[in-house]
């Protein structure tokens, strides 16, 4: 049995809907994976995440390897038991955090050496260790170690990095055990289309279980990002699911689904919730705004999330301004319901072959709210 199998059930233009079959069950696509960095989607119980509509979550290999440790999680029965999540889990390789958080990094063919952002202790991460750590966690879908080139990196640097990424991916594949999870490659190449194509070609030779688009949403203009997605997805969409890493803005989700992307993850819904920003059909609502002090309405009148069914904007503002922890929970519940509900509406629109109609209406309402 394949460790990861994508089954297309409907198509509308380039947008596609389907089922991603994992060893722990099927994931409806297009899918958004809430981020559980430290083995928790911040402020929520696992059942609340599932009830919001999530089939799969993402956990962070770097953070869990540092604390409590991948071996410790394995000894406690694996990540699913540790965090009481029964569904599929995708883990990143830890590479992005190494390059963005760790100090004094040194990179060579063997991998990367760095110092922990927690205590400064010396550590190293190579392709083999990245797979080993993810297998210890019990990941259903693992990611290969790669380098996400820094924003503004020149063409020669990116070309060198993506070639090394492909060699690392081959080593990761060789290191995967018989009982290990699926393994996805990561297409890099910056904003250079020929380098993206070369990265895809090198990774496709390995016949991995699926392919992600990395190195996007890191500061480049949105129109450039969408152009890269549009031209890169066809290169890998015939070889399994296509995963766009680190993108969660609602407008970006809708547009990327229209370009054929199947999977997404991002901290945006949960992180913005903790800053008092609520996602709505007309853009973000800043619940800290004084205009909501006496507003008896829910965040969105038609929203069926637990927050909107029971609480007013005035109450949510009061909680946030008072520093009450319940504010973070209620805001997060709403934002996750909004994003996961958006994915369900996209799946329905694709099944009815009306993606374009849905996307036009959704984006037009967003734009109207920003005027």
TrEMBL record:
One of the protein's GO biological processes: tRNA queuosine(34) biosynthetic process
Entry function: Catalyzes the base-exchange of a guanine (G) residue with the queuine precursor 7-aminomethyl-7-deazaguanine (PreQ1) at position 34 (anticodon wobble position) in tRNAs with GU(N) anticodons (tRNA-Asp, -Asn, -His and -Tyr). Catalysis occurs through a double-displacement mechanism. The nucleophile active site attacks the C1' of nucleotide 34 to detach the guanine base from the RNA, forming a covalent enzyme-RNA intermediate. The proton acceptor active site deprotonates the incoming PreQ1, allowing a nucleophilic attack on the C1' of the ribose to form the product.
Keyword Membrane in annotation: no
Name of the protein this chain belongs to: Queuine tRNA-ribosyltransferase
Annotated cofactor note: Binds 1 zinc ion per subunit.
InterPro entries: ArchSynthase1/Queuine_TRR (IPR050076), TGT (IPR004803), TGT-like_sf (IPR036511), tRNA_ribo_trans-like (IPR002616)
Regions annotated as coiled coil: none
Residues bound to Zn(2+): 303, 305, 308, 334
Catalysed reactions, as listed in the record: 7-aminomethyl-7-carbaguanine + guanosine(34) in tRNA = 7-aminomethyl-7-carbaguanosine(34) in tRNA + guanine
Entry annotated with the keyword Transferase: yes
Keyword terms, alphabetized: Glycosyltransferase, Metal-binding, Queuosine biosynthesis, Transferase, tRNA processing, Zinc
Subunit description: Homodimer. Within each dimer, one monomer is responsible for RNA recognition and catalysis, while the other monomer binds to the replacement base PreQ1.
Pathway field: tRNA modification; tRNA-queuosine biosynthesis
Cofactor: Zn(2+)
Family statement: Belongs to the queuine tRNA-ribosyltransferase family.
